[in-house]
Amino acid sequence: MQNSSKYSKLIKTEAKRLGFLSCGISKAEFLEEEAPRLENWLKNNAHGEMAYMENHFDKRLDPTKLVPDSKSVISLLLNYFPSEKQNPESYKISKYAYGADYHFVIKNKLKQLMEFIQQEIGDVDGRAFVDSAPVLDKAWAAKSGLGWIGKHSNLLTKQVGSFYFIAELIVDLELEYDHAVTDHCGSCTACIDACPTQAIVADKVVDGSKCISYFTIELKNEIPISEKGKFEDWMFGCDVCQDVCPWNRFSKPHSEPLFNPNPEMLSMSKKDWEEITESVFQKIFKGSAVKRTKFSGLKRNINFLKD
């Protein structure tokens, strides 16, 4: 046990050095509480057309099925809250997509952390995850004491709010485990009240198929006409439930240069967006998560907001 405590401290210190906001560790085991929640969520078709959410049900709940012999889930948070915001009179992009695609930025940091663990501790096997595999990021982060799940189903942390990415290393190394923290949402319903499409259907339950992020990023077909006039100028993603959350008054700007936006993007007006060409799109969003919706998807979203 002495070693597991020493190793945990080493890992957390290195995570901080790599720029992570915080690091928590939990035992790699079956997520018993999450199983019925995930089952009901899928049963209610809250995933819309995101068919991939139905795959790997067992792996989502049991990290030992993803990484054989795994003992620990190391959860990490990386801040993305920007120091500068878009022109407030313009169409809006979710803050997480202002700069470089976070998948690449975080994967690189996780690779460095894994190499550090192998150098300092020895023969440790594991895998890195950045929301692109069947891992319930928020559940693991909450289990390892990095925050609690808010009513909007995002992870919340007292000191910093919720504008951060969550990632994991699942390793076959026994470590010292952290404990979950208490819920501090109280009777506040700011996120539920403010959601433009009423996508937060119950405490900690979001109907993904009603969320603006789903409509503007995941949905490949035309946006249903029934949603007309509800999007509050969001053309890629949506931050409403986070923007209104009282805990986000503690958000501080990130210090990751790769997350800094193209200055041109910040100053663009609605007219600029409406007239955007593919070459300007490619230039502004080079290496960005916005590429996920493609030029045609962004044009579709803008036209939907404009008409």
TrEMBL record:
Catalytic residues (positions): D131 (proton donor)
Keywords: 4Fe-4S, Cobalamin, Cobalt, Cytoplasm, Iron, Iron-sulfur, Metal-binding, Oxidoreductase, Queuosine biosynthesis, tRNA processing
Binding site for [4Fe-4S] cluster 2: C195, C211, C238, C241
Keyword 4Fe-4S belongs to the record: yes
GO molecular function: epoxyqueuosine reductase activity
Pathway, per record: tRNA modification; tRNA-queuosine biosynthesis
Cofactor binding note of this UniProt entry: Binds 2 [4Fe-4S] clusters per monomer.
The keyword Chloroplast is annotated on this UniProt entry: no
Record's subcellular location: Cytoplasm
Binding site for cob(II)alamin: R60, D131, L155, I166, S213, C238, D239
Residues engaged in binding [4Fe-4S] cluster 1: C185, C188, C191, C245
Catalytic activity as recorded in UniProt: epoxyqueuosine(34) in tRNA + AH2 = queuosine(34) in tRNA + A + H2O
Gene3D superfamilies, per the entry: 3.30.70.20
Group of enzyme by EC: oxidoreductase
Chief site of localization: cytoplasm
Cofactor(s) for this UniProt protein: [4Fe-4S] cluster; cob(II)alamin
Residues annotated as domain 4Fe-4S ferredoxin-type: 173-205
Documented EC number(s): 1.17.99.6
Subunit structure: Monomer.
Family: Belongs to the QueG family.
Role this protein plays: Catalyzes the conversion of epoxyqueuosine (oQ) to queuosine (Q), which is a hypermodified base found in the wobble positions of tRNA(Asp), tRNA(Asn), tRNA(His) and tRNA(Tyr).
Protein name stated in the entry: Epoxyqueuosine reductase
Organism classification: Bacteria, Pseudomonadati, Bacteroidota, Flavobacteriia, Flavobacteriales
